[in-house]
Amino acid sequence: MSRIAYVNGRYVPHREAAVHIEDRGYQFADGVYEVTAVRGGRLVDEERHLKRLDRSLGELKIAQPMSHAALKFVCREVVRRNGVRDGIVYLQVTRGVAPRDHSFPKDAAPSIVVTSRRTKGAPQKSVDEGIGVISLPDQRWARCDIKSISLLPNILGKQQAREAGAYEAWQIDRDGNVTEGTSTNAWIVTGRGELVTRRADSTILNGVTRLAILDIVARQGLTFVERPFSLAEAKEAREAFLTSTTSFVLPVVLIDGEPVGDGRPGELTRKLRAAYAGQIEQ
Amino acid sequence: MSRIAYVNGRYVPHREAAVHIEDRGYQFADGVYEVTAVRGGRLVDEERHLKRLDRSLGELKIAQPMSHAALKFVCREVVRRNGVRDGIVYLQVTRGVAPRDHSFPKDAAPSIVVTSRRTKGAPQKSVDEGIGVISLPDQRWARCDIKSISLLPNILGKQQAREAGAYEAWQIDRDGNVTEGTSTNAWIVTGRGELVTRRADSTILNGVTRLAILDIVARQGLTFVERPFSLAEAKEAREAFLTSTTSFVLPVVLIDGEPVGDGRPGELTRKLRAAYAGQIEQ
Question: Is the interface score ipTM higher than 0.95?
Answer without folding.
Answer: yes
